Write the structure tokens for this entry.
Amino acid sequence: DGGITQSPKYLFRKEGQNVTLSCEQNLNHDAMYWYRQDPGQGLRLIYYSQIVNDFQKGDIAEGYSVSREKKESFPLTVTSAQKNPTAFYLCASSMRTEIYYGYTFGSGTRLTVV
Amino acid sequence: AQSVTQPDIHITVSEGASLELRCNYSYGATPYLFWYVQSPGQGLQLLLKYFSGDTLVQGIKGFEAEFKRSQSSFNLRKPSVHWSDAAEYFCAAYSGAGSYQLTFGKGTKLSVIP
């Protein structure tokens, strides 16, 4: 079955380390998105990509980086510049122009700084 | 700016009672509208969507929503809530113009009393 897979489900990071969250989809979707979720703050867009080798900053891109070398993959790196990285991270994908189908979400990665 | 508002941050209902979660949007034209549900520690799952036609749409898990253009609303309803419906619910919209992205409300957390 087609879907979107995020790994790992839980991730622990020491202060000053970079970590990379994986997001893979086999839905043949053009667009992919990364959101950060904190209690009571809803979904905040970090980065999005609507086509391979191109991506755009969202509302809270500082301290994060992404790449989109393959259509299926959109990894997110949380750098040491991100001051408060502990959060739940969600990846999503969609058809770029057929947005009436909505987004498909992964099951999330919970990142904790220790 | 285009926005989606969910006025209720937290709602508590008794099991078996009816439920209505509110969602308002601020778009000039009729947007594409979506409701998603998120169980704790999970990703978002699409409940239902509307983009044209019958203003009352049926979704999964016994949910329905009604689009009311005059009130710029897309409220989610369920006649009889089950304990398993306890989750967070997100309303989302796409304006039909500009970048192909959804705008999400901040979510309503539903608690169910046995």
The mean pLDDT of chain A is 94. Chain A is about 0% helix and 50% strand.
